[in-house]
Amino acid sequence: MRLGDLGFDEWFEAHAAELRLDGCGFARISAVDRGSYLIKDESREVPAELSGKLAYQIDRPVDLPCVGDWVTAQYCNNDTAAIIRRVFPRRTFLRRKTPGKDIAFQMIAANVDTAFVVQSCHFDFNPSRLERYLIMAADGQVEPIVILTKTDLVTQDELDRKLALVRSVTPARVIALSNVTGIGFDAFRQTVSSGKTYCLLGSSGVGKTTLINRLIGRDAFETKAVRSTGEGAHTTSRRQLVVLSQGAMLIDTPGMRELGIVGAGDGVNTGFEEFAELSAQCRYGNCSHEHEPGCAVRTAVEKGELDPGRYANYIKLKKESEHYEMSYRDKRKKDKAFGRFIKSAKKRMKD
Ligand SMILES: Nc1nc2c(ncn2[C@@H]2O[C@H](COP(=O)(O)OP(=O)(O)OP(=O)(O)O)[C@@H](O)[C@H]2O)c(=O)[nH]1
Ligand SMILES: [Zn+2]
C-alpha cells in the first residue's frame, strides 16, 4: 500500500512541504475516541496522541484532528505508537452544529470525496430532512449522491413519485435500490472507486450498514434485525475509517439522525401528516402522545389504525427535534446576552 491508496493525492502533496518534519511521516486519522487517535499509513495503524505543542496551539474544537484528516506524525516505541505534530488543511469536510449549550460546529469527518445520503423510500422518506443532509454536504464541498433504499417495500408508482420528489429538491445523482432483491445495487457499486473516501449519511435503520456489508460481501458491520415495520434499530456507534477490499475507503458514522432536524420545526411533521391531524383531537394542546389521557394518537395506535412502528419513529424524531431546537434557542439567548454584555462593556470604556 502507498499513501496515495489512502487518498494522499496531488492536493495534499502540494501541502506536504510546509507540513513535513524531520523524523516524521504522514498518516491519516482512522479513528477518534475522546482525545485518543488511531492513525494509518502505508504500513501500519497505531494509536496516537497530540503533541503538547499542537494541543496548545489548537484553540477551537473544530481544528482538532478528526477522522479522515491527514497529519504529520512521529512514531515512537518501535513504531507501535505515535505523536501527532501537525494537521493538514482539509480539502472537504462534514460538520454539524453541536447539540448542547455552546453551539459551534462539530467535525464529523474530513476529506470525504462523496457522501451517500441514504433514505428509505419507506417510513424514513422525508424530502426536507434529505435537503438538510444535502446542505451539509454542500457546506463542506462534498459531492452528494442520494440513495433511496428499500424499494422492495413500495410499489413502482410510489417509488416514481418519491424519485420525482427527490429530483425536485436536488440535481444530485439518485440511485434507488433494494438490499433485499439486489435491484439497483450494481449502480451503487459502480460509483465506488479505489483511493476515494466515502461516507454514508442517513437516519438509523435506513440500511446503511446493510449496503456496506453487501458491498464488501460479508458481514463486517453488524446490523440489527428488522422490526415488523420494515425499519431497523440503531446499531452503528463508532466513527471510523476502513479500507474496503476494493481499495475504497469508508468513514462509517453513527446514526446522525439529529443532523437533519436541527432548528426546523417542520422536520417532524413533514412525512408524518396524519399525526398532526390526530394531535388536533387530543385532549391537551401540548400532548406528548405518550402518557396523557385522551390522546387521539395513542388511541389510533391501540385501535390498529396507526402503525406502531411509525408511531415509535414519530415519538423518537419529535423528541430529538425538541432537544435540538431547545439548544438552538439557548444559544440564541446566549448570543443576545453576550451581545448586550459587549455593548455595555464598550459603553463603560467610553464613559
Ligand atoms: N426490506 C428491506 N429491508 C432492508 C433493506 N436494507 C436494509 N434493510 C433492513 O433494515 C434494517 C436496518 O438496516 P441497517 O443496515 O442496520 O440500517 P443502518 O442505516 O445501518 O442503521 P444504523 O446502524 O442504526 O445507522 C435491517 O434489518 C436490514 O435488514 C432493503 O433494501 N429492504
Ligand atoms: Zn396525544
TrEMBL record:
Pfam families on file: RsgA_GTPase (PF03193)
Q: Which InterPro entries match?
A: G_CP_dom, P-loop_NTPase, Ribosome_biogen_GTPase_RsgA, RsgA_GTPase_dom
Cofactor binding summary note: Binds 1 zinc ion per subunit.
UniProt-listed Enzyme Commission number(s): 3.6.1.-
This protein's record includes keyword Zinc: yes
- The residues the record assigns to binding GTP are 149-152, 202-210
Asked if the record carries the keyword Manganese, the reply is no
Recite the UniProt keywords alphabetically.
Answer: Cytoplasm, GTP-binding, Hydrolase, Metal-binding, Nucleotide-binding, Ribosome biogenesis, RNA-binding, rRNA-binding, Zinc
Protein name in the entry: Small ribosomal subunit biogenesis GTPase RsgA
Organism whose genome encodes this protein: Anaerobaca lacustris
Q: Gene that codes for this?
A: rsgA
